[in-house]
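Hi! If you just cloned this repository, the fastest way to understand the data is to look at a raw example. We've pasted two of them here, unedited. The first protein comes first, obviously.
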Amino acid sequence: MRVIRAIYGCIESALAWYTLFTETLEGLGFTIKPYDRCVANKTINGHQCSISWHVDDCLASHQVLDDLALIMIKEFGDMEISRGKDHSFLGMEIELTDGVVKLSMKKQINKLITDFERVWLFRQ
């Protein structure tokens, strides 16, 4: 019974967070995409600003990210912000070079292999 309650509570809190986050984005003029409910877009200064998220990890792209970051900090509190051409998001390494986006999950895959080996050796 405890497990069911804990899982139920997690589902409720996740839904509460999702509702708060999406309502905040919609209040800022973003449109949640119907094909992926964790992606929102807004046109700012003639350019599309896209935000994707998983729980509380967000990835946004646009020329006015400093303004967006200030709004998000005001709404949700202090957060870690990554700027530049190299980023990490949900286990993906993202590199921007000369207009090309390179995605890699080598670090994530290597971590999975190492963790699997550690568990496998422990069971031996």
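Ok, and the second one:
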Amino acid sequence: MGDHEHHYQLSVVWTGNRGTGTSGYRDYSRDHEVQAAGKPALPGSSDPNFRGDGSRYNPEELLVASLSTCHMLWFLHLCADAGIVVAAYRDDASGAMVEHPDGSGEFTGVTLRPQAKIIDRARIGETAALHDRAHALCFVARSVKFPVRHEPVTTAGPD
């Protein structure tokens, strides 16, 4: 079985024209929507540090979210394959970005902090290796040039 190529299609539509377009740096909103057929629109803007609306998702948050959700989905898959029942999962992820004097910048790292609750206390010790494997398999983590760390905590009990 060889490699399989997958494709993803979405639209980003700028909704921030206040009547004069980009006539000046302060004259337009950074608001936009991420749209995909058959899905609710995701409200976006830039980070408030860059004149954005803090009540909307910014690209930096969405990058951290992509890494977090990719890791979670792989971890859940691997637990299901191993017969480990996950009752609850939460990740309080964070990312760091450096901005240079010329306005450019890049992420310097993302830290995932997955907290999984499993049913069988006797299997807690197995979950660290599954987090490591999820990280190794995550399509998004494999695609970025900065380090993605994970600091998992696993507990046992019902959700």
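That's it. A detail worth noticing about the second one: DSSP finds two helices and nine strands in the chain.
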